[in-house]
What does this fold into?
Amino acid sequence: MTAPTKRRNPLEFIADEIDDLKAKHLYRPLRVMSAAQGPVTVVDGREVISLSSNDYLGLTHHPRLREAALKATAEFGVGSGAVRTIAGTMTEHEQLEAELADFKGVEAVLTFQSGFTANTGVIPTITGEADLIVSDALNHASIIDGMRLSKAPRKIYPHKDVAALRELLQTAAADGRPDGAGPYRLVLVVTDGVFSMDGDIAPLPAIVEAAEEYGAAVFVDDAHASGVLGRNGRGSVDHFGLHGRVDIQVGTMSKAMGVLGGYVASTQALRELLIQRARPFLFSTSHPPADAAACREAIRVMLDEPWRIERLWASTRRFKAELTRLGFDTGRSETPITPLIVGDSELAIRFSGRLFEEGIFATSVVFPTVALDQARLRTIVTAALTDEHIDRALESFAKVGNELGIISG
Ligand code: PMP
It folds into this structure.
């Protein structure tokens, strides 16, 4: 018998990749929170004012949601125990979907484990070789992955460029399928409602008009519009008064609703098809009952406490105005997502690090989440932050921004 030769580590390349990321200032260690998500939390052992969460309305720690989760746990246990199609559909799931459909003003809703799996579930389920997907260049990663999982060809239009979108739709309607097999079965226009890194809003009325003209369907991912735009946070369709004219809305329960999960709001027929075919729905376990119950309570709180969304927008307006006055570049943001664009990734990481030392948690976002020369801090002033918190954060932004030469004055 020959002695085994010393085995070369086949995973050696991983350490090299990490070294490479560090050398390019693209490596970001995980920050660990040891307190509840909230306006003030504890990160890596330091108490900080947080501008980094998507907890727009401050619901992650709301007493009514906590209570609902505890009650559901006491009654139903901690896990659902199966995928929905086997033994994992509980009354909490069904009630949540009915209540969401009512809230959104649509025929039916189906929930998924996350906004991410909602997108990767629905897009490949409803599109195939006979269809065309037309997508905004800055759509979220989960839309991109959903398209990758689909057999449908896809065309990308420059960010929010409705003239370019129109041209694509016109060509698609005139020429049909590239293999000469006739017209497309479905042309699906897909857009984020609010773009997650820049905080700008999709030109939904113009998109809907173009789609209607050429017989296309519209799909909007409202992850960052849910709880933020529209009456009580009903989303971008409500914000623009486009009820009945957007075919599919995807939402998330992980951001403004403060819990976890995604949903597809559309027709009863689509809900039925997704139950039969959508792979994350069929092959991954459903929400724990506590999550579903907390999401149900989140809807009620959004209806009962409209001051939260009002506070979110008032703080956002003041924060943005102050940042602009100080000389920061907040890009094209129109919503509570407020980027502070610095360009260079090393500078963004240093900016975030110095703010952290000052007690302000504002994470940097670098490539590949944004373009290489678009590194930034990404901030949200949630409804839970007080004016004093925001003033303290602004003071630190001014101090550190000057120190690092990002602003002058
Ligand atoms: N869509 C968009 C536009 C998002 O920003 C996000 C979250 N970053 C998602 C989908 C995914 O949502 P979730 O966190 O619920 O998976």
In short: The first helix runs from residue 12 to 23. Residues 114-116, 119, 140, 142, 192, 196, 221, 223-224, 252, 254, 262 surround 4'-deoxy-4'-aminopyridoxal-5'-phosphate (CB under 6 Å). Residues 318 and 360 are 18 Å apart (CA to CA).
